[in-house]
Design a protein that fits this description.
Elements lengths: L23 H11 L3 H17 L3 H14 L4 H14 L2 H14 L4 H13 L3 H14 L4 H13 L3 H13 L5 H13 L3 H14 L4 H13 L3 H14 L4 H13 L3 H14 L4 H13 L3 H14 L4 H13 L3 H12 L8 H16 L3 H14 L4 H13 L3 H14 L4 H13 L3 H14 L4 H14 L3 H14 L4 H14 L2 H21 L4 H14 L5 H15 L4 H13 L3 H14 L4 H13 L3 H13 L7 H7 L4
């Protein structure tokens, strides 16, 4: 555990007097020249920006700092403050750029070096963070921020001994900052010394009785150590410190629920609502608590009570609508959203637009394209740049096999909101539909370069594009990097097996699949209701299982996944294919026909349906399906069987 947090402090520095009082007239003369010049304007923008920053008005502050930089592009302090603005807005890439520019212009700007070090830590580059700490310590020996950064970097590098030496020395010198005790606890935990970690945090709390982060970290450690009463008592102290912050009561309720003290959990949740009955957020949090634990009836009750207490609430209706939608009651979801439309007469009201976007998504999921299009067009009429509406309109185009239309919509999405990763993925899908494979890979590669933290989302579609391009080595390199970062990434192991299959290397494919199966087994031990793991393990068992009874177990797992998500094409395919392997061709065909109606271009689905049709006396249709699969150029498990069935091998 690393609980090092960025405690950024603005330290106002007194300006040094440039000249003695005896030179006052000379100073006044120079000021007279400068007063109406760019220097005064620059400082006016900068000071106004700092004032806005301190008030939390980060967007406006950023504009002022940019104005100062426009006057003086080499103004390092303005670049630094712009970096702080971007940091507060969560734009880490922009923050990094501004801090880097600041230290380029003024290498002695220690605060900027510290922020860069913190960003390196967040990006899991502790070696670079350590270098930044050393740079600051050369400029400012004994700098507390730099010493804390150095200790954090050493902990990340698994060098807890040197980190402890630094932290203990700081402690002896009277440093009492909360970060110091968090890092001490992290160092002790790295040595599996949980008692020492708890002691460090208790000492920190004695020195910083209002530092909530120390209490929360201590409560977490007590929970790990199965000291539930101590954890609960610690959280109660946090609640006493910040009684209006409902998040802490929810944390306490979660602790009680985790240890089976549900009555205490419910009582704690009731305190959240009772404290502020007209608070939407509190009621949403309580509803979300129950949803996260599968208590949908309790969530429905709480959200309905919230709507009664706050009749004009859009947010509560949105939450209840989502609950209905995700539990198979779309008609109730639509009814609630229609209620929202009656709450506000202004067609351009943002919440009305949000309602129509939600209605469009539901109708699209039901393949009611006309209704979905109507709502989307109404939104775009009011706001031509509404990203959600263009995203749904792009999905409608994909459903209609309109590749050009989809490209246009998703280009709008990625232009307006470049950080929305699904927009880049859908744009690549649209290019794939147009057989523009190079554009598809280029789209995803650029998105990955700009958003390296989104690699888990982007790598899978990029691998699929590489496979279409037969760039198998590129696909494998991407997957190996992902597996190296997380050896328990079952999806990546599974996908790697598919790449090996496409290359014709069945031995490596089988080994990768076996590794994936081992991970899925562990996932299901901890999360028995995880339908994705159940479905993927079922398919792999049906293909690569070697034990007696593996096919029967695969069927049981596939049925479980089907019970959780009966409309998913992959789930339908898995269950149908297992029925095929068990000789139940009637059920197999019904399921895979349903799946292929949802994904008609799927090579695997066409292969599976073709094999089934050969068994059910539909030889001509079956051969057409198999020809489609083998002529797609895609490698897939079962390709040799398809070729053999067609007499091509």
């Amino acid at each position: 555990m690393s609980h090092f947090e960025e405690f950024n402090r603005e330290v106002e520095k007194d300006m040094r007097k440039l000249f003695s009082l005896g030179m006052a007239f000379l100073i006044l003369a120079s000021l007279a020249v400068a007063c109406s010049g760019p220097e005064e304007k620059k400082m006016k923008f900068f000071n106004k920006g700092k004032s806005l920053y301190e008030k939390g008005e980060f967007v406006k502050a950023g504009l002022e700092f940019r104005n100062a930089i426009q006057i003086d592009p080499k103004y390092a302090d303005a670049h630094y403050m712009l970096g702080m603005v971007e940091l507060r807005k969560g734009n880490l890439k922009n923050a990094y750029g501004s801090f880097s520019k600041a230290v380029e212009l003024n290498p002695n700007l220690t605060d900027a070096h510290i922020q860069l070090g913190n960003l390196y830590l967040a990006a899991r580059q502790p070696d670079k963070a350590l270098k930044k700490a050393e740079t600051v310590l050369q400029l400012s020996p004994g700098n507390e921020d730099a010493l804390l950064l150095k200790a954090a970097a050493l902990i990340a590098l698994k060098d807890s001994a040197d980190a402890l030496a630094i932290l203990r020395d700081m402690r002896q010198r009277g440093v009492k900052r909360p970060e110091l005790f968090l890092l001490l606890a992290s160092s002790h935990l790295q040595n599996n010394s949980i008692k020492e970690a708890q002691d460090a945090l208790n000492t920190g709390i004695a020195d910083n009785p209002k530092a909530v982060i120390l209490y929360l970290t201590l409560a977490d450690l007590y929970t790990r150590d199965k000291k539930i009463d101590e954890a609960a008592a610690t959280l109660q102290k946090v609640i006493a410190l910040e009684p209006k912050n409902s998040r802490y009561r929810l944390t306490l309720a979660g602790l009680y629920w985790h240890v089976g003290q549900n009555d205490k959990a419910v009582a704690t949740l009731q305190e959240v609502v009772a404290a502020e009955p007209a608070n939407e957020e509190g009621r949403l949090q309580v509803g979300g608590f129950y949803i996260a634990r599968g208590r949908f009836a309790d969530a429905e009750r709480e959200l309905k009570a919230g709507i009664q207490a706050i009749p004009k609430s859009f947010k509560l209706r949105f939450a209840l609508s989502d609950l209905y939608l995700n539990t198979g009651m779309p008609d109730r979801a639509i009814s609630l959203l229609n209620e929202c439309l009656a709450l506000e007469k202004d067609a351009g009201n943002p919440q009305i637009l949000q309602t129509k976007n939600a209605l469009a998504r539901i109708h699209l999921a039901r393949q009611e394209v006309k209704e979905a299009s109507r709502y989307v067009d109404e939104v775009i009429k009011e706001n031509s740049k509404d990203v959600d509406a263009h995203f749904t309109k792009g999905n409608i185009a994909l459903l209609k096999r309109d590749g050009a239309g989809a490209v246009a919509e998703f280009r709008t999405v990625t232009s307006e909101r470049p950080q929305l990763i699904p927009g880049h993925i859908r744009l690549a899908e649209a290019h794939m539909l147009n057989k523009e494979y190079n554009l598809a890979s280029d789209t995803l590669e650029k998105a990955l370069k700009a958003n390296p933290r989104s690699a888990p989302l982007l790598s899978a579609p990029l691998v699929q594009v590489y496979m279409k391009q037969k760039k198998y080595e590129s696909a494998l390199a991407l997957l190996e990097e992902r597996i190296q970062q997380n050896p328990g990434d079952a999806f990546a192991l599974n996908l790697r097996g598919q790449v090996y299959n496409a290359q014709g290397d069945e031995l490596k494919a089988a080994e990768s699949y076996r590794q994936a199966m081992a991970v899925y087994e562990k996932v299901l031990q901890k999360q028995p209701e995880n339908w994705v793991a159940a479905n993927d393990l079922a398919f792999l068992l049906s293909e690569y299982g070697s034990k007696p009874g593996d096919l029967d177990r695969a069927l049981a797992l596939a049925r479980k996944a089907y019970g959780r998500n009966a409309e998913n094409p992959a789930v339908l395919d898995t269950l149908g294919w297992i029925y095929y392997k068990k000789g139940d061709y009637r059920q197999a065909e019904a399921l895979i026909v349903k799946a292929i109606n949802k994904a008609p271009e799927s090579v695997m689905l066409n292969y599976h349906l073709g094999m089934i049709q050969l068994k059910t006396g539909q030889a001509e249709q079956g051969k057409q399906r198999l020809n489609f699969a083998v002529r797609s150029g895609d490698g897939f498990a079962g390709r040799p069987d398809a070729l053999k069935a067609l007499g091509m091998q």
